[in-house]
């Protein structure tokens, strides 16, 4: 084509070269490719806890070729009946201990309320089952340490439900952060805004109390633990460090229904070197939804759902692959699309950033795929016992700071598993 417009043929040739490797300063490194699942029969999995998260996990497992749902378990019969629609042919149990006795079950997913994780995880590992435990692994530091030690010391796979560590997009962006593309990181920000009360109705007061465990201080770490933990872990992972302090604040601003945990919170973390990270969440408004931001001297990175963009500063150095990158207008800024699995997209004759996302493969899908892969190959899972423990400590202390309306100074020994 005339002028400086890049033709599709030129784009494909240049992007094919750029997608496999990125030129950052003088370093060349291969773009991370996810390993294919090992050959062999599907992993036989039992799911314990069939609430909303349990059913989401069953739906994700149904899409993973390496997984077979062999059994499901819940203490509430109606939950079992609903879940059975997603797990045709699976054995059903009301007592998880009976599920653990089954020789047809190789691995167990623990998706019960957080305060019920401990004994189920310990018993599952004792029964020589591989374990995937939802995050946070516990609501107290002592229980989190006990669970994490058992998972670390087990010969079985122990994976924590920190889904972003398995997600292709977040792994892709990790490469940019770790190689210094954003420059000096000055601050970070994230939010979770979604109008939902968290309060659920039930036929009896007893069942209603069981369902609303997230609303009581004794059984819940609130918004920091149930939602924020994924962002806290993302920062710990990306920065390869732990926070030195957290200041929290929050209130029950709208849902005055007897709950104890706040419906709106803000947390400010300080990291070594002085970088601050702000987390905000509310159950009162859905405006602006959820996203994560990393602000650097050369570029800012935004992650939103299964999309990510890099916004460069005017004085930042030119990157070797930048001319081939797909750019999009986001608000008043122009962002370079950061696309996971770009090589595969190009090999399929498509342009990264312009094609629709495969919405059937989200972070939860990849977490289930990686769990099965770790079991089949013996490789380490993406979120191990140490990551699970340290993220739990971060979230638990953030929740304490919010409840007290003050600042918590992290002690280094809090993050040591021992």
Give your account of this protein's structure.
By secondary structure, this protein is of the alpha/beta class. The protein has twelve helices and 18 strands. The strands form three sheets. The chain has a ten-stranded mixed sheet. Strands 5-4-3-6-7-8 form a six-stranded parallel sheet, sandwiched between helices. Helix 6 links the parallel strand 7 and strand 8 (158-160). Helix 6 (141-153) packs antiparallel against helix 12 and helix 9 crosses helix 12. The radius of gyration is 22 Å and the shape is globular. 44% of the residues are buried.
CATH class of the largest domain: Alpha Beta
Which regions contain 5 or more consecutive residues with pLDDT less than 50? Answer: 1-34, 343-350
Q: Which class do the helix and strand fractions yield?
A: alpha/beta
Largest sheet: 10 strands, mixed
Reading the helices and strands in chain order gives HEEEHEHEHEHEHEHEHHEEEEEEEEHHHE
Tell me the domain tally.
Answer: 2
Number of strands: 18
Radius of gyration (CA) equals: 22 Å
Strand fraction: 15-25%
Overall pLDDT: 89
Q: What is the CATH homologous superfamily assignment of the largest domain?
A: Dihydrodipicolinate Reductase, domain 2
The number of helical elements comes to 12
Biggest sheet strand order reads 16-17-15-14-13-9-12-11-10-18
CATH architecture of the largest domain: 2-Layer Sandwich
Helix content: 25-40%
Morphology call:
globular
State the CATH topology of the largest domain: Dihydrodipicolinate Reductase, domain 2
Terminal CA distance reads 63 Å
């Amino acid at each position: 084509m005339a002028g400086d417009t890049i033709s599709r043929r030129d784009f494909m040739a240049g992007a094919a070269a750029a997608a496999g490797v990125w030129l950052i300063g003088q370093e060349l490194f291969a773009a991370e490719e996810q390993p294919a699942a090992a050959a062999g029969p599907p992993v036989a999995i039992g799911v314990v806890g069939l609430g909303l998260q349990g059913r989401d996990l069953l739906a994700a497992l149904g899409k993973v070729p390496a997984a077979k749902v062999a059994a499901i378990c819940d203490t509430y019969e109606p939950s079992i009946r609903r879940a059975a629609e997603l797990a045709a042919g699976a054995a059903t149990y009301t007592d998880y201990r009976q599920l653990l006795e089954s020789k047809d079950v190789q691995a167990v997913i623990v998706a019960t309320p957080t305060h019920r994780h401990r004994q189920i995880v310990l018993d599952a590992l004792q029964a020589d089952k591989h374990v995937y435990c939802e995050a946070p692994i516990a609501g107290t530091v002592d229980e989190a340490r006990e669970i994490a030690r058992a998972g670390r010391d087990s010969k079985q796979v122990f994976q924590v439900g920190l889904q972003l560590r398995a997600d292709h997009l977040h792994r892709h962006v990790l490469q940019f952060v770790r190689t210094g593309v954003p420059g000096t990181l000055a601050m970070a920000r994230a939010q979770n805004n979604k109008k939902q009360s968290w309060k659920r109705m039930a036929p009896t007061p007893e069942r209603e109390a069981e369902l609303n465990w997230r609303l009581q201080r004794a059984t819940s770490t609130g918004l920091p633990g149930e939602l924020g933990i994924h962002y806290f872990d993302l920062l710990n992972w990306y920065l390869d460090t732990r926070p030195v302090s957290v200041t929290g604040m929050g209130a029950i601003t709208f849902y005055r229904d007897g709950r104890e945990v706040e419906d709106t919170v803000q947390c400010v973390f300080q990291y070594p070197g002085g970088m601050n990270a702000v987390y905000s969440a509310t159950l009162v408004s859905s405006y602006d939804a959820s996203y994560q931001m990393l602000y650097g001297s050369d570029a800012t990175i935004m992650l939103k759902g299964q999309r990510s963009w890099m916004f460069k500063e005017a004085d930042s150095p030119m990157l070797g692959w930048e001319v081939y990158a797909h750019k999009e207008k986001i608000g008043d800024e122009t962002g370079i699309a950061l696309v996971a699995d770009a090589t595969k997209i190009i090999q399929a004759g498509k342009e990264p950033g312009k094609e629709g996302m495969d919405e059937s493969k989200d972070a939860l899908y990849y977490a289930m795929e990686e769990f099965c892969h770790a079991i089949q190959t013996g490789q380490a899972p993406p979120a191990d016992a140490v990551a699970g423990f340290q993220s739990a400590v971060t979230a638990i202390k953030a929740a304490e700071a919010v409840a007290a309306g003050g600042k918590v100074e992290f002690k280094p020994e809090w993050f040591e598993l021992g």
